[in-house]
Write a structure and sequence with these properties.
The protein has 372 residues and is an alpha/beta fold. The protein has 3 domains: 131 residues, Rossmann fold (3-Layer(aba) Sandwich), CATH 3.40.50; 137 residues, Trna Endonuclease, Chain: A, domain 1 (3-Layer(aba) Sandwich), CATH 3.40.1350; 78 residues, Orthogonal Bundle (Arc Repressor Mutant, subunit A), CATH 1.10.10.680. It is built from 12 helices and 16 strands. Helix 2 links the parallel strand 2 and strand 3. InterPro entries: Card1_endonucl_dom (IPR015093), CARF_Card1 (IPR056339), Restrct_endonuc-II-like (IPR011335), tRNA_endonuc-like_dom_sf (IPR011856). This is DUF1887 family CARF protein. It comes from Lentisphaera profundi.
């Protein structure tokens, strides 16, 4: 595709359609003009701020209410442009905005739209069929475009005890109840700020076996029928469930998406904070992962987790996919609810092939987009 000096973009909440061509180094313009209706001023400002940080010149064109076609048409006449230097992006805006821009801007302006990660010509389809956009957007940029700031994330880490993951995933039916006790002891230790926890229960065979595995992995320095002593606070974090987050990290490394991280914390302008166990971008689509080792069937925790994920998916932006990775299998009614909410589930022994299941979810999402 030819490189144009100016891109004219129509603004709505779907920022990626406008932004992706602007950050592709082979076709990025020098300047972008964002045309917006009053209801999308905030979206226009976000996209403007993003582009200014990327070194682009930016102009904003305020349009009247988007339901008045004649006024919209006149508004576009304000743009004094050399059509040979301009490209009109019709990916965003309302239908009336697209009609007005298409009809009242010079016919010689190149027109295109963006779907997913490809650019398609509209005015001169004989030039080429489509152009594959570079997958350059990163997690921080994606969240910023949807009103969220990334406060912290972990992109690289050294994962220990991956052989222990294999043991736990291979024998879910043996360890799932023992993991519940481990979670409680580690949570209590974390809350109290201590390494040693006293308890009054007799370990069953599975719990004894699990404690032995943890001891052999240098996560526990001592255990008996009354006491569990963790090696350090990192060991406490690991034992209270962070190990499945580490497993997600290893699976994402194998998947090799365009960007990924674990332990992501985001905030919006209102001060709302959300913590995300894992997030990754694959072909410019965002996927969020929630990792759980607790018994979600108790006290409606499965339902709470699924609705939290559904809300978070809506927060993060359009076309976001939610994935719940649960060590302990969910109840049938939660599986049905997850299906209704379009949240993918990886559970129990399926986590042995965590990366393959992530790949299957990505492929299914791509097929759905193609048929949609």
């Amino acid at each position: 595709m030819k490189k144009y000096q100016i891109h004219i973009c129509l603004v709505n909440e779907n920022a990626l359609g406008n932004i992706l061509p602007l950050i592709d180094p082979d076709i990025a313009p020098e300047k972008v003009i964002f045309c917006y209706s009053p209801s999308h001023l905030q979206d226009a400002e976000r996209q403007r701020d993003f582009c200014l940080e990327k070194g682009l010149q930016v102009q904003l064109l305020a349009l009247p209410k988007r339901d008045n076609l004649s006024e919209l048409q006149v508004s576009f006449l304000q743009l004094q442009l050399d059509p040979k230097t301009c490209a009109l992006n019709l990916s965003g805006g309302s239908k009336l905005m697209c009609m007005a821009a298409y009809e009242f801007l010079d016919d010689d302006i190149f027109r295109f739209c963006v779907e997913k990660d490809s650019l398609y010509p509209i005015s001169s389809p004989d030039q080429f069929n489509f152009y594959d956009l570079a997958n350059k957007i990163q997690l921080e940029d994606y969240f910023a475009l949807h009103g969220w700031n990334v406060q912290s994330l972990v992109r690289t880490k050294t994962v220990l005890h991956d052989d222990l993951f294999d043991e736990l995933f291979e024998n879910v039916s043996t360890y799932e109840k023992a993991i519940g006790l481990l979670n409680k002891l580690a949570h209590d230790a974390d809350n109290d700020g201590v390494l040693e926890m006293r308890h009054h229960r007799k370990f069953n065979d599975a719990q004894v076996k699990l404690m032995g595995k943890l001891y052999s992995s240098n996560l526990l320095s001592y255990y008996d029928a009354n006491t569990v002593r963790f090696v350090d606070h990192d060991a406490i974090d690991f034992c209270r469930g962070f190990w499945i987050e580490d497993a997600a990290y290893l699976a994402l490394k194998k998947l090799k998406p365009q960007d990924f991280a674990i332990s992501v914390e985001i905030t919006n302008q209102q001060g709302s904070k959300n913590e995300i166990d894992g997030a990754f971008l694959y072909e410019n689509q965002l996927y969020l992962i929630e990792c759980k080792t607790s018994h979600l069937a108790r006290e409606g925790k499965g339902t709470q987790t699924l609705y939290k994920m559904d809300t978070l998916v809506d927060y993060a932006g359009l076309h976001t996919e939610g994935i719940l990775a649960s060590y302990r299998p969910l109840e049938d009614y939660d599986l049905r609810r997850a299906k209704d909410l379009d949240i993918s589930i990886i559970q129990g022994s399926a986590l042995r092939n965590f990366d393959q299941h992530l790949k299957n979810i990505v492929e299914k999402s791509k097929e759905s987009d193609q048929h949609g």
